[in-house]
Design goal:
The complex is a heterodimer of chains A (356) and B (288). Chain A is α+β, with helices and mostly antiparallel strands and 356 residues long. Chain A is built from 8 helices and 20 strands. Classes of the chains: A alpha+beta (356), B mainly alpha (288). Bound molecules: adenosine-5'-triphosphate and magnesium ion (MG).
Chain lengths: 356, 288
């Protein structure tokens, strides 16, 4: 176990810079999730930590050791790849013991440590099998097993669950969490699934176009996103946004002329803002922003309402049940503390992606 | 209506089995067409001189080992067979080693101009061998290397290495690069990852390619004809000599006996390759 310090790291492929100076200090035992849209540089950063990709500028230290120019094998890290990369010609036992064998660990100790890891992951009965005789979930588990027998300084995960079906993904997610609580190994976990990031990590790092957009504990990102990008990325279903000009301090005038009364003025006094409200923060009321219901979807525990405000589709999530019907006109209010105001910015695609 | 419903599938099935039979029949016919000369060669090799030229040709005759015994106890033929074994395995092994390593480099190492380099090597195969044979002879003579095994081995490598390199390159490209990366994280160098992970996974491909290369070198005639004269002469050259004997005329029994012995290893090797290839595919080396 160890700290991991990334200091102003950059990466360029030829003339194209893809990581533009990232600094990140990870504490011993901390679980950090890197999230962001496809192509934002998550894998590249992770691979630089692993030593699989050269660092163009900046440095990386594991513990007190500068590892920037060390080969992967000298860094004492373990990595789980999206495609697991199990060695197809070796049994599960040999796959898990391979790294120890490379270090000339005594045979008896390898046996013991592989057996331990297999017990933790429930792989005891599969030790004699080759990877091709395993299901997707079992392969994933073997890949994790291969990482934990090493007892490395740092675990690196690159979208380890994205090849699994939804149900298995949820199950493995809690297993990873349990594993981390037990082993307390410093972990960097790349995902583009914000729920995975939120549920697993002590700290979430939102990346965008090769820079850190915002980082912090999951709920802090949820409560206080600094930009439209982060607000759109964190939370599911995603936040609703309204862009417009401020009139008379507390009126938001949308571009089609609709006026929405704000419960509080913009603390920064901007002329133009993007206002954001999470679906779960709307309240149905007798007066407020008028909306027309288009779809009502009840799951029992909660009801999701899709409605229109001035032609714009929004999502409203209410706990329990409601007797609102499609076609009905409703009014929505928001607690002043739960309304978000940002510099105007285009809303990233992620907000439109449906969660799995 | 119901009667139609029940007969229709039956009809269809029968029709399908007809077309199946037709295809099998066609395949057998084509195989016979190709196998017949081989069959005739093997048959002829066991005939005595008087039985060879009878009309109509005899299918039943007193089989004799005489030709085999005569030719394989003679001084030159066993030597030539040995030469062929040395040159073919030498060229096969050298080209598999060089070709596999360079194929891996082409598949994995990010180098500027690597793709161009690869294409150039491939294009070199487009040069007709005859255009290379004569210059090679001149070079070999200047270096005092004519009629030596090593010369033929190098000559064969000129066409075997590009062939091996390209086959192995496409094989390596199909393997996920995370395999080596994982091995490198697990404590290997790039070379270690190659030898401990990639080579074992690729074994079926490497062995099949090796055997194909050996076969290609085994039956090569042109370079052998030009580059050897006495000591390093290979079997294809010997066969050409028997067939083109202008003094006594072609000795058919000898020709077919030597031909049979030359072809047998090729057939065995080809069957082996097929088995390995199928096994390699079944292993699903790229998955998992
Ligand atoms: N070998 C390479 N050569 C050139 N550009 C590359 C190379 N590898 C990655 N890139 C670029 O670097 C950027 C970041 O890629 P990276 O794989 O880190 O994204 P990511 O955040 O992991 O995305 P995803 O969620 O799709 O995995 C991308 O724009 C990609 O095109
Ligand atoms: Mg990635």
């Amino acid at each position: 176990m160890s700290t991991l310090d990334i200091n102003n790291v950059r990466k360029a492929y030829g003339a194209v810079q893809v990581i533009h100076g990232i600094t990140l200090n990870i504490q011993d035992g901390e679980f950090v999730a890197l999230v962001g849209p496809s192509g934002c540089g998550k894998s590249t950063l992770l691979r630089m930590i692993a030593g699989l990709e050269e660092v163009t500028a900046g440095d990386i230290a594991i513990g007190d050791r500068d590892v920037t120019d060390l080969p992967p094998k000298a860094r004492d890290i373990a990595m789980v790849f999206q495609n697991y990369a199990l060695y197809p010609h070796m049994t599960v036992r040999d796959n898990m013991g391979f790294a120890l064998k490379q270090r000339r660990t005594p045979k008896a100790e390898i046996q013991e440590r592989v057996a331990d890891a297999a017990r933790i992951l429930g792989l005891e009965d599969l030790l004699g099998r080759k990877p091709r005789a395993l299901s997707g979930g079992q392969r994933q588990r073997v890949a994790m097993g291969r990482a934990i027998v090493r007892n490395p300084n740092v675990f690196l995960f690159d979208e380890p669950l994205s090849n699994l079906d939804a149900k298995l993904r949820v199950q493995m997610r809690s297993e990873i969490k349990e594993l981390h609580q037990r082993l307390r190994t410093t972990t960097v976990y790349v995902t583009h699934d914000q729920i995975e990031a939120m549920t697993l990590a002590d700290r979430v790092v939102v990346m965008n176009g090769g820079v850190i957009e915002q980082e912090g504990p999951p709920l802090e990102l949820y409560d206080h996103p600094k930009s439209v990008f982060v607000a759109a990325f964190i939370g599911s279903p995603p936040m609703n946004f309204f862009e417009g000009s401020i009139e008379n301090a507390t009126v938001l005038r949308l571009d089609d002329g609709t006026k929405l009364q704000l419960p509080k003025p913009d603390p920064k006094g901007r002329e133009r803002i993007t206002m954001g409200v999470r679906p779960e923060h709307f309240e149905l009321a007798d007066a407020g922003w008028p909306a027309t219901v288009s779809v009502v979807e009840a799951t029992g525990s909660e009801t999701q309402i899709t409605a229109r405000i001035a032609g714009k589709l929004i999502r409203v999530l209410v706990r329990g049940r409601t007797d609102v019907k499609a076609g009905e006109n409703i009014h929505l209010t928001v607690n002043p503390d739960l309304i978000h105001m940002f510099d105007p910015a285009p809303i990233p695609d992620v907000a439109l992606e449906e969660d799995h | 209506m119901t009667s139609i419903d029940t007969t229709a599938p039956k009809l269809r099935r029968r029709r399908r089995s007809y077309s199946h039979a037709a295809r099998v029949g066609g395949a057998i016919f084509i195989s016979l067409l190709f196998l017949f000369p081989v069959f005739w060669m093997v048959l002829t090799s066991f005939k005595s001189q008087v039985d060879i030229f009878t009309t109509p040709p005899k299918l039943f005759f007193d089989a004799t080992w005489a030709t085999y015994i005569e030719y394989f106890t003679r001084a030159d033929i066993p030597d030539r067979l040995l030469n062929t074994v040395i040159v073919a395995t030498g060229a096969g092994i050298l080209s598999i080693v060089v070709g596999t390593l360079s194929g891996y480099a082409l598949a994995r190492i990010r180098l500027r101009g690597a793709a161009t380099f690869g294409v150039l090597i491939l294009m070199s195969r487009g040069v007709p061998p005859i255009a290379l044979a004569v210059p090679m002879f001149l070079v070999a003579r200047n270096m005092g290397l004519t009629d030596k095994h090593i010369t033929l081995i190098f000559a064969y490598c000129t066409f075997l290495i590009p062939y091996v390199m390209w086959l192995m390159r496409s094989f390596f490209v199909s393997l996920p690069k995370e395999l080596e990366e994982s091995a490198m994280i697990d404590g290997c160098s790039r070379f270690g990852a190659f030898f401990k992970i990639i080579v074992p996974i690729s074994m079926p491909g490497i062995l099949s390619t090796l055997i194909f290369s050996i076969i290609l070198a085994w039956e090569e005639l042109l370079f052998a004809l030009v580059l050897t004269s006495r000591d390093a002469v290979t079997i294809p050259v010997a066969i050409a000599g028997i067939a083109g004997d202008t003094e006594t005329g072609a000795n058919w029994a000898a020709l077919t006996a030597v031909g049979t012995v030359t072809v047998i290893p090729v057939v065995i090797f080809a069957l082996l390759v097929q088995k390995w290839l199928i096994q390699g595919l079944a292993d699903g080396a790229t998955k998992g």
